């Protein structure tokens, strides 16, 4: 279910521990929390080998999801995901005092800031404005960049596919995706790589709602920047034959296709022309056969 950990509403390597499961982020309860559990959680987060529990929050009813309780890691467990726990349950914690707030001894590497933009720094900025396509035409094709921590950054092409591209194109307001491109097809970006191994189901409203690994660890380089070609809105390309309407052959599809496409799910123009010409040829042969039969009679 694309599980991952994060620390929320805290500073670098400290905050409320949450787990991503079944498409939703939820809290981890602190009941039966062992030192080994804290250690493995910090390792998973890239924040050192040790951690400590922070003071529990004041009493109050938990309003969000809480996935895990009684996570009891031991010396034999080498990963947080191998530790025994209570069954997955979105109502694991009863109140705010049960949520896990931890502080790890390490710190995540700082990412150098990239040039800032006006819109995403304002409180009224929408999710649609926190993504852009750079290097293509009309903002509907190009290198995918997202706004995070006050700067624009790119998306790594690891596991980048049509489901991810569908979400990106929908978030851009550019209609269905035509292709998902990799290997910096629209040129290499600059600044941080914010997302790695994006795993969208295709129905999310934005890339920020998809599961992904934080990409600021330096494992992915800009030569692996992901890109998209979107169909655009209200675009219709020329038909190869008079009177034949092919709305999916859009002029908005044009754009560089360097790199390895990860699948488009579309029919190319040469294939369509072959199909049409083949159908016409079959019709012509049928008419000729009819005439031959009439002449013999």
Automatic annotation (TrEMBL):
GO terms for biological process: zymogen activation. InterPro entries: SRCR, SRCR-like_dom_sf. One of its GO terms (molecular function) is serine-type endopeptidase activity. GO terms for cellular component: extracellular space; plasma membrane. The chain crosses the membrane at residues 267-289. Residues 5-105, 131-231 form the SRCR domain. Keywords: Disulfide bond, Membrane, Transmembrane, Transmembrane helix. Disulfide bonds join 29-93, 73-83, 156-220, 169-230, 200-210. PANTHER family: SCAVENGER RECEPTOR CYSTEINE-RICH TYPE 1 PROTEIN M130-LIKE, SRCR DOMAIN-CONTAINING PROTEIN. This is WC11 protein. It comes from Smutsornis africanus (Double-banded courser).
